Amino acid sequence: MTQPILTDIPMESFLSHIDAVAGAIAKSDWRPDYIVGVGRGGLVPATYLSHAISQPMLSVDLSAQVVGFCDELLDKLVAMALEGSRLLFVDDINDSGRTINQLRAALAGAPADHLRFAVLIDNVSSAAKVEYRATTIDRVVTKDWFVFPWEAVASRASILSDWGEVPERTS
């Protein structure tokens, strides 16, 4: 298996991405009541975005893949949306679309107009669609594995292990 090209996202670019997403939200006619960070990669962007647009942040984590761990939290998020709260889910990248589609399925009982998704990098050929993004890529063309500032502290082996979970994203 060929290893990916690891492309660092500098902190300055990350901050510009946060500004771009915040700007897109400001220009839209929809405002979240809560930012929901999607663990693991969306927690840091959600925290920054929460500060940038002055909205409180919640979190949910599917990345650890612990069966049943998020069920109660997801049920609470559905209940909040049913009660009228608008929830903006934030992740670092919409790559294959697996995480976003998994969340959309888990939140199917919530009113669709109360849920939105934002990412820093949006793969235009993803199986999932998002409402807000800072920048786009096309995985048909761009094969790089992006290393965000919070991931840069990990060892190369750890980064490659994360990539290795679904290597076809960059193949």
UniProtKB/TrEMBL annotation:
Pfam families reported for this sequence: Pribosyltran
Tagged with keyword Transferase: yes
Gene3D superfamilies registered for this protein in UniProt: 3.40.50.2020
Molecular functions (GO terms): glycosyltransferase activity
SUPFAM superfamilies assigned to the protein according to its UniProt record, in alphabetical order: PRTase-like (SSF53271)
Keywords: Glycosyltransferase, Transferase
InterPro entries: PRTase-like (IPR029057), PRTase_dom (IPR000836)
Span of domain Phosphoribosyltransferase: 14-151
Record protein name field: Phosphoribosyltransferase domain-containing protein
Species name: Sphingobium scionense
